[in-house]
Structure prediction request, 502 residues.
Amino acid sequence: MTPLDAKRPLQLNAQGQLQHFLSLDGLPRELLTEILDTADSFLEVGGRAVKKVPLLRGKTICNVFFENSTRTRTTFELAAQRLSADVITLNVSTSSASKGETLLDTLRNLEAMAADMFVVRHGDSGAAHFIAEHVCPQVAIINGGDGRHAHPTQGMLDMLTIRRHKGSFENLSVAIVGDILHSRVARSNMLALKALGCPDIRVIAPKTLLPIGIEQYGVKVYTDMTAGLKDVDVVIMLRLQRERMAGGLLPSEGEFYRLFGLTTTRLAGAKPDAIVMHPGPINRGVEIESAVADGNQSVILNQVTYGIAVRMAVLSMAMSGQTAQRQFEQENAQ
Amino acid sequence: MSLPNPAELISQMAIRLKAHLEHRGIREPRFIGIRTGGVWVAQALLEALGSDAPLGTLDVSFYRDDFSQNGLHPQVRPSALPFEIEGQHLVLIDDVLMSGRTIRAAMNELFDYGRPASITLVCLLDLDAGELPISPDVVGATLSLAAHQRVKLSGPTPLELELQDLAP
Prediction:
């Protein structure tokens, strides 16, 4: 095996193509656009009588979920199946044993099953990167969410949602609202919006739910909903992640809803054609009013459909990049 | 080697295609061009036929048999078929027929939309290098190239053929 070029990001091969999909950090705009374009084509496939293409026939994709998930797991399964890959899903509990041990042991077993690709969700930040770096250099690793760090396929499906409803990113104002501190979706979205050229990215949250150093993402910070939502084109609501909240970050859910809940009245301050997004699962009456979640500005269910297409794009592109890298290494070895 | 003029080929192809469809008793064919060159040829052919029938476009990237060697084509675009495939007589149009693998991929894709009544294959050029039992029903011209030569169509207007030399 050729040693990794120190300057080359782990998730790109020698030709700059995707070979893992770990984070949106450092990915160029062209590559993100290629993912969105490819996803557009897969979206068309999803509308056919036969929603399946033979692209990954004979490949084995292993979904390894160390953390609970419904939407992400099922849409990754569907994406793999629609690409004609064989897919198995393992729900691994993290409650017992030390996490490092569990992770390595589980992965050794999976390696022995000759999987071509792992989709990994883990509660620890950096888990997918760790696997790509140390465990299986020949296997494509797709990050299905790691701790508070990244959820890059969610980020890209949010970008596809915005592009399909708003056309482009150049003149948009996008507000990300709620529990930014615990949200890997927020991080992935900020990186993607920045890379795709969105000029006005806002985050709206109470001070206790904002990470330190949020400014480094090039976003404007608001602690007031009315000011933050003024004339935005896109509102991305986040789930209040109560399970990750250790201390007294919030007085109560009722208080949070009173100040940061997306209600019909608050949404009226955004542009009249603004769209409302949410990665799910939604907490009605905690971060979003039912009338908004079910209203005609909501594209929350479209996001799920787009999620399958984006995951098909990422799975096929990473598999393609792995193939190209193997060939490149073979040619260089000769 | 001099290459033929695509405009001339297309007017001859229009006449032959008309005769072919009449012979088969096909009254309402559905036209489909394969991206990208096949779509250009199809547009020119419809114009030569004086037809305003809707044109379907097919991107076969997801059906290619060389994914495990060459990976995914980076500029894949959605296929768009503005009509039913089930029970229809299709006219499938491509620019250059070489190995026949693109046509196989196109037929696999079409069958995922439905079961057509028939498929007629129309190609601007046949390079006489088939690797599969696929041959065109209507062809503009047949050429034999040396192994290191390729021919490329540029378009959509004007359509021009260009001979390319691969690195030895």
Summary: Helices of chain B lie at 6-24, 37-48, 67-70, 101-111. Residues 6-24 of chain B form the longest helix (19 residues). Chain B touches chain A at residues 59, 61-63, 67-72, 74-80, 108-109, 112-114 (CB under 8 Å).
